[in-house]
Amino acid sequence: MNGISPRRIGALALRYLYLLRSSRIRIIELAYWPTVQMILWGFITRYLAGHSDVLNQATGLLLSGVLLWDILFRSQLGLSVVFFEELHARNLAQLLISPLQPIELIIALMAISLVRTVLGVGIAVLLAIPFYGFNLFSLGLPLAGFFLNLLLMGWAIGLLVSALVLRYGMGAESIAWAAIFALAPLCGIYYPIATLPGWLQPLAWALPASYVFEGMRAVLLDHAFRLDDLLHALLLNAGYLGLGIGVFLATVHTARERGSLLQSGE
Fold this sequence. Notes:
Layout: H1 6-21, H2 24-50, H3 58-88, H4 92-96, H5 102-132, H6 142-168, H7 175-183, H8 201-205, H9 208-222, H10 227-258
């Protein structure tokens, strides 16, 4: 048995370096996640440092933010990841040559996303009660509106991401993870939108989730339910979900015409 060879190790490491250098997406991803985390926690620190009175309720605010954010995150992944499984299995072409209509596929993906979201987030919500003495259901009736809006936004993003992967191949799969986290600093999960720089605030207000998290803080800090925020989020979600469905259906139609469904797993 040969001993450990630094030459072989170096050759293999050099191969991996060449692979990294040849892919701009991989290089961008190296800096992407630390940058998003830095921006997110930077705004959290700025908000808490300027509002010492909020620290007394920090546990409830942070846990509410985490759990509500997970609804958005899980609903998006619950749709897109299930769709990716069909691509990996090269099963999409078989599905779409059956009587199954693309809109039926979308509805089925939304249904399984709902189930996965309720199961995943529901367990975390229940565990937060004995672990931290925090009950998300203390938000009351507004919680239903928050859940619905985050679910709809997650579906819209999931459909757009799925359409991109269907169009450009599995090499774009990482977008499913990157897209949702790119929006996290803009949604005001742990801090008000006013904490953001002025030039970013209009972009934040274009996201339905921003109204949900502002509404969450209004319930926890001011004991007020902002119905206007909820309705504004619903209107935005109607537009984004319609866009997501339209883009997905158009992409499926184009893939059918180009005959690329059989290569969709590549």
